[in-house]
Specification:
Elements (H helix, E strand, L loop, with lengths): L10 E2 H4 L1 E6 L13 H20 L2 E12 L7 E12 L3 E12 L6 E13 L11 E2 L3 H25 L1
Parallel strand pairs: 1-7
Antiparallel strand pairs: 2-4, 3-6, 4-5, 5-6
Length: 165
């Protein structure tokens, strides 16, 4: 038996937004002494999962990691904040934008270190895609990001079809 929350008719960007703060420790370091990109990617995937699941009220899976821009290195001992929000919602898929910032543990300004775009898909207990609620857009910035996300989703769809044959 699978317990499901009833999905509302629509949710705002703010209602599904998720943030995680993590202290980077020596076991996160790569051979150069900076934080290993894989440690950052793992946290990006987790916070994107939380955002998508909050919106869908269903189990979600990562369908693609479309773009990751490493803007600056992350140092061991820094606090790193992973902030995720929906930019686009389709029938069963959701685009999640994750912004990552780092700051010294002792304080100081946060600097941007990574940005990523992921596509998450809501699935049922048999891992088949299921519909998700629409995204309620509350301002011009959200509407602009939604249209940009729609364009990226359509481009991904065209690329997949072209690659298949």
């Amino acid at each position: 038996m699978v317990l499901r929350l009833a999905a509302p008719s629509g949710l705002t960007v703010a209602q599904s937004r998720a943030s995680v703060v993590r202290l980077m420790v020596p076991t996160d370091a790569n051979f150069t002494g900076n934080v290993f990109g894989g440690a950052i990617l793992s946290e990006i995937d987790r916070v994107a999962y939380v955002t998508a699941t909050r919106h869908a009220h269903r189990q979600c899976v990562t369908a693609s990691l479309d773009r990751v821009d490493f803007l600056a290195p992350v140092n061991v001992g820094e606090l790193v904040e992973f902030d995720a929000m929906l930019t686009f919602v389709g029938h069963s898929s959701m685009e999640v934008w994750v912004r990552v910032g780092a700051e010294a543990l002792a304080g100081g300004p946060q600097r941007p270190v990574v940005e990523a775009l992921l596509t998450m898909v809501a699935v049922d207990e048999y891992h088949r895609p299921v519909p998700v609620p629409p995204l309620v857009l509350e301002n011009d910035a959200e509407r602009r990001r939604f249209e940009e996300g729609r364009a990226r989703m359509e481009a991904r769809r065209r690329t997949r079809h072209a690659e298949r044959g």
